[in-house]
């Protein structure tokens, strides 16, 4: 047996894996707020978001919140699934749902969940009746 001890390499901060951030389809070059959910970034209008989501305004105005910036634009980090935030932002900024489009169960659930959490009443109120529709359980009745 060898009496020499093996030297371990010291790990530096640069050795840590930095998660790769990706841009969502919801990215407006003139947006003045970047929202991060998991590893996905969304660039949106703070004013439009404030109009629809009073709960997010509360987060933005929290005096305890650390303010970071990306590309000179304020960053807000949400602790929600990126897929859920994308569904909600597409609805708010792109109006992806319409009367003739029947969304997936996951999309409706995301709208109900995020709508309630961030006080997006119009989205929450639109999602809840669809969420409880008996036909939602039948796969042929909705798009994914």
Explain how this protein is built.
The protein has 144 residues and is α/β, with parallel strands linked by helices. It has one domain: 2-Layer Sandwich (Potassium Channel Kv1.1, Chain A). 35% of the residues lie in helices and 17% in strands. The chain is built from five helices and five strands. It has a five-stranded mixed sheet. A hairpin with a 2-residue loop joins strand 2 and strand 3. The longest helix has 13 residues. The N terminus and C terminus are likely disordered. It comes from Mycena chlorophos. This is F-box domain-containing protein.
Question: What is this structure's SSE topology?
Answer:
Elements: E1 22-27, E2 33-37, E3 40-44, H1 46-52, H2 54-60, E4 68-70, E5 73-78, H3 82-94, H4 105-117, H5 121-131
Parallel strand pairs: 1-3, 2-5
Antiparallel strand pairs: 2-3, 4-5
Helix pairs in contact: 1-2, 3-4, 4-5
What's the short story on this structure?
The chain has 144 residues and is of the alpha/beta class. The protein is built from five helices and five strands. The chain is 35% helix and 17% strand.
Full CATH superfamily name: Potassium Channel Kv1.1, Chain A
Counting H and I runs of at least 4 residues, what is the number of helices? Answer: 5
CATH class: Alpha Beta
Q: Give the second-level CATH assignment, the architecture.
A: 2-Layer Sandwich
* Total domain count: 1
The amount of helix comes to: 25-40%
Number of strands: 5
The SSE string, one letter per element, is: EEEHHEEHHH
Task: Tell me the span between the first and last alpha carbons.
Answer: 62 Å
Q: Give the class from helix and strand content and strand pairing.
A: alpha/beta
């Amino acid at each position: 047996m060898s009496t020499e001890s093996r030297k371990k390499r010291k790990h530096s901060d640069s050795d840590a894996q930095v998660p790769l951030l990706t841009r969502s389809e919801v990215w407006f070059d003139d947006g003045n707020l970047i929202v991060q959910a998991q590893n996905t970034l969304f660039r949106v209008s703070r004013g439009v978001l404030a109009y629809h989501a009073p709960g997010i305004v509360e987060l933005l105005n929290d005096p305890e919140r650390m303010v970071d910036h990306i590309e000179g634009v304020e960053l807000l980090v949400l602790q929600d699934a990126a897929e859920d935030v994308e569904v909600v932002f597409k609805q708010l900024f792109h109006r992806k749902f319409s009367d003739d489009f029947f969304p997936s169960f996951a999309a409706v659930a995301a709208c109900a969940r995020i709508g309630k959490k961030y006080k997006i009443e119009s989205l929450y109120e639109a999602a809840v009746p669809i969420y409880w529709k008996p036909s939602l359980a039948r796969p042929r009745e909705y798009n994914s």
